[in-house]
Fold:
Amino acid sequence: MDALLRNPRTLPALLAAACVGALATALAAQYWGGLNPCVLCMYQRYAYGVALAFAILAFLLAGKAAGRRPARFWALIGSAVAFAAGSAIAAFHVGVEQKWWQGTAECHAPALPDNATVEQLREILLNQAFAPCDQIPWEIFGISMAGFNALACALLAALSLWAAFSATKGGQA
Structure:
């Protein structure tokens, strides 16, 4: 196990795999589980996409050359920042779900035209997918998906920081 952690590509690969796994889980919940994402859920996905790009960059920069260590360090820091942003968005989403504060303007039902007929309003409402941010579509042990995501992103941010600072100590991470 120690030899595996000494490989400079191991932790960036694990971070990338975590991003792919989280995004795959979100898409599976959406398309197979029928859980339509709200706008805050979508923002959380963007954080994983950015972190994935930085993790792949760190993986590619994990060569033998000592000159690549600073670039790998900053790529891993970028990944940590993306995960921290994802955790903050998820924590904000939990607050919206718990009605501690209001969500963004996009969290509320779209505005309907004042002069629309009943048939036009019906068409607008039936043809528009909308998921309110303050509704919890799935939870386990009293923790929503946003709550689990806040924890996961915080842990991945910490792992990214550990990998970044390990990268400056002689090739680990």
In short: The chain has a mean pLDDT of 85. The longest strand covers residues 139-140. Helices lie at 2-6, 10-31, 39-60, 69-97, 118-126, 145-167.
